């Protein structure tokens, strides 16, 4: 997208920022799962920068794009890890190692070595992990399982089908992408809370 003000995208980024930051607050504040909290926070920060970029200050494009890539390559995998944290309690040091490893891989494959499919690969692995977690729990808690699978599938559809460039009918694809992620994150927040209740 060019460096211009696009108020519909500022609005869709605002919705995504509110949902993601709300999710981050739920998991960070209650110490239910700080891994999920960090994952949601990364998306919330990226969307917040998007709101500022498209609504007020287009010149922060590079910061917004960096945070968006970080949210996809580090934040979403952290949310996927959170779906297993309840059954495999990991010590804080291992969680820090996972965060560092994901961040280093992000830097390696997006900055040092240009590997364009890295985002698709890491996102697909994360979504598959959440779907498996949903399938494993569906017998015990149908709603949690369905919400896990649905949220993950919606993120996959947003990234692989809706995408962010161009228009779909009369609506910008990036706006549809943000709204789809917002709904998906609501489903994942509800599912993760169900894993810990």
Explain this structure to me?
The protein is globular and about 50 Å long. The chain is an all-alpha fold. A two-stranded antiparallel sheet has the order 1-2. The N and C termini lie far apart (42 Å). The protein has one domain. It has helices spanning 7-29, 34-55, 61-85, 92-112, 118-137, 142-162, 173-195; strands at residues 167-168, 171-172. Helix 1 runs antiparallel to helix 2, helix 3 (61-85) packs parallel to helix 5 (118-137) and helix 6 runs antiparallel to helix 7 (173-195). The model has no long low-confidence stretch (mean pLDDT 92). 41% of the residues are buried. It contains 7 helices and 2 strands; from the N terminus they run H-H-H-H-H-H-E-E-H.
Question: What's the SSE blueprint?
Answer:
Blueprint: H1 7-29, H2 34-55, H3 61-85, H4 92-112, H5 118-137, H6 142-162, E1 167-168, E2 171-172, H7 173-195
Antiparallel strand pairs: 1-2
Helix pairs in contact: 1-2, 1-7, 2-3, 3-4, 3-5, 5-6, 6-7
